[in-house]
Amino acid sequence: MTTRVLITDDSGLARKQLARSLPESINAEVTFAENGEVAIQQLKANEFDVMFLDLTMPVLDGYETLEAMRQHGLTVPVYVVSGDIQPKAQARVMELGAKAFVQKPVSPKQLEDILEPFKSDAASAAPKAEPVASTMRVGRREMYLEVVNVAMGRAADSLARFFDVFVHMPLPQVNVFEVSELTMTIRHLANNDNMSGICQGFSGEGLAGEALMLISDSSMKELLQILDYPDDGSVDNELEVLVDVSNVLISAFLSGLGEQAGLVFAQSYPAIIGQHLAVDKLVDGMRGTWKRTVTIEVSYAIGDTNIKCDLLLLLVDESLPLLDAKLAYLLDEE
User: Fold this and answer.
1) Which residue, of 100, 134, 168, is where some domain finishes?
2) Which of 8, 167, 193, 253 could form a disulfide bond with 33, CB atoms 3.0-4.6 angstroms apart?
3) Tens of pLDDT, residues 164-176
4) Mean pLDDT, range 22-33, rounded to an integer
5) Final residue of a domain: which of 134, 164, 199?
């Protein structure tokens, strides 16, 4: 007898990590789904003993998958495994029927505890299920995307707790940009609105880069309406919000990245690169700062509002070999 496990995650690296961390004692027979739609198809066609589910996915995300399972009467036990660790996210998945929430990256010990009920039957099982993780190949970009997924979850959690809101987790983008392409991306993010931006350098053990946070004027106006900042003229509230949001997002994101890479980042003093500037003027102020970069792009949205905050991490080329070396353990075969 085997334990039939369905792992649903858009990240090939996350699927591989989870599969190879499953305890041998359960004799797992693993099936993969790259999004919730595929998972629903698998659940309708096959029987499973347990399902592991990511939240941030294209097509059908984790929340939509849980809702669809309820609609179709699919009752397999679901454990949500996600980098989105906001309290409201955890509460929401439990309301939708998940058995438990597990923070990425999941540890083998956590999986042993979760799968304890399957051990007694599976321990004497024969023949052994074929391990699937050893046959999977994961590339460098997938490695970066999964590491970014965990880091942006830390940042979203910090932002959610700071402002007592729910922050929607986006699908991150990782690209290599020339400066001209970077400015085009910023123009696209601005969407013809005036922007305010903060730039902050960071470094750690030879890895260096700059973080850029952008908030449109329309988002800033709505953000101020939901916050309880003093309105007595004693402070520049818009500047305070800009600095507070950048401190929360950038620090938490770098902390999440550093935890996975075994790095501690030092951050320079944040520099305001513009308030209420047309995007072309904001871009003009950046010229000469960057050349060719690996750009991590994350757009956060606050629930039940039109507020959007864009975070870009710009890593210089020279830093990449070190980052690759620090993260190589994620790709190691076991």
Assistant:
1) 134
2) 8
3) 889 998 888 888 7
4) 92
5) 134
